[in-house]
Design brief:
The chain has a domain at 389-609: Rossmann fold, CATH 3.40.50.1820. It has 621 residues and is of the alpha+beta class. It contains ten helices and 31 strands. It is flat and about 85 Å long. Strands 1, 2, 3, 4, 5, 8, 9, 11 and 12 form a nine-stranded antiparallel β-sheet that branches. The termini are far apart.
Length: 621
């Protein structure tokens, strides 16, 4: 009897010791597991609070150009054109932590998917055999737009931190409720029966649900900063969508958190239409950028917060020791009620930020937002913003070789990156061509064509400003462009920041007799006459506006002119003509056709398009 009681006592003591030894482990696992729920403030008790942001975006457009209509002999006059665009944006943000269940784990979702198509079909035919032919035109539009949002608790959230320092984070955002709209219209003209020319339209709207996105990430806690978990992942999948996930948690519960930092720029050519900057594409040097930060108050009392925006070099491999600098001089001050989240913004001019002040390429700009309370920093968030240099528009001269600027894209890529684009305008290299009225084109016609090229480039790259270089009479075309189209129409800024003339006959060419003898074709004779001294005097009386564009000139000083041995020039254009009306002049010993070579890019163009944010570069006298 005693022996049996003794054995039971020993067994009970052993089991009790096992329970005592495993209880801390079980408690840790249970606490970590309770973070996965939104019932009660379990995440706050576990000691982690933070924010997770997920973005899925797509921006694409398509223009078929003229497609011949099947079964029609005249392919030029019977055609269809289709333009399609799609803008997809899914932005979700989860806030975890706080002082009560209402702020324990909540998410906000904003979703929009806008798919638009515009079509035009033209068929040339007649109503009857004895009638004249005319155009039958169909203009069609269609749009499919879905918009949805959610502001709700997260149903599935898990943050597990292992004792080894590895962590895993997963969550599923709530479903978003919204509307789906499908609308189309058709207008016709030229049809034989009046009823067939009546417009038609249809529209349908219904409720819809956008399923919440799920994310799962893993990582390693920084041993030098064990109280912080943070990271970011970005990718572009085969389906053309861009994905970005960012997360930041702190073990010490914070009352003020910066929950989001993002960038917007105006969509060219509408200065009032601001769109989010796609991380992989970035923005263009000189664009205005709205820097927006969201701040949340997780406490149960009102907070007075100051938000600072700075450019930071922390984490940069080469420039990490440089101190932070204010992005703008002003500070945004706000009052946040308990549980309130608010977005603040500053307007930033990105001019020069594709480069460092010493002329080195800057491939990414690091921008930081800081939240301060009572002169103490409470939280910060840093995001990268890619700033590409302004596109360089290169205008060839009349009858120039098509390879005049063919190497310049490689020059730009090796100087900065492939994001720096060289755009060649060479519609004029074969001569003047013919206008619809049969007359040959002139420099003013080419300036109009150049405007279409520049506008298309600005729309494709969303670049509000460009730089431009023109060789020979290409410089005159560029001058007319600046005169007629040089203002951006917004912010009072010049559309062309810098125009670099290369061997340009600004006052004409003295050897006009030689031009008459050399060009026998009627269209080329017409073009050559534009360069006669008398014609150029009239040209310069009209072409005077610069709209703030900086002018420079590369002037050939290699030899005397064949028709005037006492006049020095590049063999075609004399020095006095190439330098007329320009103060910033650099001289070259190259002949006229060689002025647009690699040496001129390095010594002339490059130092004039690299500005630096503070104007300390180029370092030239």
């Amino acid at each position: 009897m005693f022996r049996r009681v003794y054995k039971e006592l020993i067994s009970w003591l052993a089991f009790s010791l096992i329970l005592v030894s495993v209880a801390p482990i079980y408690g840790q696992r249970r606490a970590a597991g309770k973070q996965a729920t939104t019932s009660a403030p379990s995440a706050a008790r576990a000691g982690w609070s933070g924010v997770v942001t997920f973005r899925k975006t797509l921006s694409e457009s398509m223009n078929t150009g003229k497609v011949p209509v099947m079964g029609r002999i005249d392919k030029e006059r019977n055609y269809s054109i289709t333009q399609r665009s799609r803008e997809y944006r899914y932005v979700a943000r989860a806030i975890v932590g706080g002082s009560g269940p209402e702020t324990d784990a909540k998410a906000k979702v904003e979703f929009s998917d806008e798919d638009r198509e515009v079509g035009k079909m033209v068929i040339v035919d007649s109503c009857h055999a004895f009638n004249d032919v005319h155009e039958f035109i169909d203009n069609s539009t269609s749009e499919k737009i879905t918009k949805a949002s959610a502001d709700a608790a997260i149903n599935n959230f898990n943050l597990y931190v292992h004792t080894s320092g590895r962590y895993s984070l997963s969550l599923r955002f709530p479903d978003a409720k919204g509307t789906y709209k499908d609308a189309s219209s058709l207008t016709r003209s030229g049809y034989c029966q009046a009823k067939n020319n009546e417009p038609k339209s249809s529209s349908h709207q219904s409720e819809t649900t956008q399923r919440g996105e799920s994310i799962s990430v893993t990582g390693q806690v920084d041993p030098n900063n064990p109280d912080v978990i943070e990271g970011s992942q970005s990718s572009s999948e085969k389906d053309s969508f861009s994905y970005t996930i960012t997360w930041r948690f702190t073990r010490k519960p914070q009352k003020l958190l910066i929950t989001d930092l993002r960038f917007e720029h105006p969509e060219y050519p509408n200065p009032d239409k601001w769109v989010e900057v796609i991380e992989q594409r970035g923005t263009i040097d000189g664009n205005r950028v709205k820097v927006k930060a969201k701040v949340v108050n997780l406490s149960d009392e009102a907070k007075f917060v100051e938000v600072f925006f700075k450019e930071t070099y922390k984490g940069d491999h080469w420039n990490g020791a440089m101190p932070d600098r204010p992005l703008n001089d002003n500070t945004v001050s706000i009052r946040l009620e308990p549980g309130e989240e608010r977005e603040v913004e500053v307007l930033w001019n990105s001019s020069g930020y594709a480069w460092f002040d010493d002329g080195r390429p800057r491939l990414v700009q690091r921008i930081k937002a800081e939240a301060w309370e009572n002169f103490k920093k409470q939280d910060e968030m840093t995001k990268n913003l890619k700033v590409a240099p302004k596109p360089l528009i290169l205008v060839t001269g009349l009858w120039s070789d098509a390879n005049t600027f063919s190497a310049h894209q490689n020059y730009l890529t090796t100087t900065h990156s492939y994001d720096w684009k060289a755009i060649i305008f060479n519609d004029n290299i074969t001569g003047n061509g013919a206008k619809p009225n049969g007359y040959p084109r002139n420099i003013f016609d080419y300036a109009d064509a150049l405007e279409q090229k520049v506008r298309k480039t600005q729309q494709e790259l969303n670049a509000w400003h460009v730089d431009m270089a023109g060789h020979s009479t290409g410089g005159l075309i560029a001058r007319v462009f600046v005169h007629k189209f040089g203002n951006t129409g917004a912010y009072d800024d010049p559309r062309v920041k810098h125009l670099m003339l290369i061997g340009t006959p600004n006052t004409g060419i003295a050897c006009t007799d030689g031009l008459n003898r050399e060009f026998n074709e009627p269209e080329k004779i017409f073009s050559a006459k534009e360069l006669f001294l008398e014609e150029m005097r009239r040209f310069n009386q009209f072409v005077t506006e610069r709209h703030g564009t900086k002018f420079s000139a590369l002037v050939g000083k290699s030899s005397s002119m064949l028709c005037a041995p006492l006049i020095t020039g590049d063999g075609v254009v004399e020095v006095e003509s190439a330098s007329a009306g320009v103060e910033d002049i650099i001289y070259s010993t190259d002949k006229h056709a060689e002025l647009a070579n690699g040496r001129s890019f390095g010594e002339y163009i490059r130092p004039r398009v690299i500005t630096g944010p503070r104007g300390t570069y180029p370092l030239r006298k």
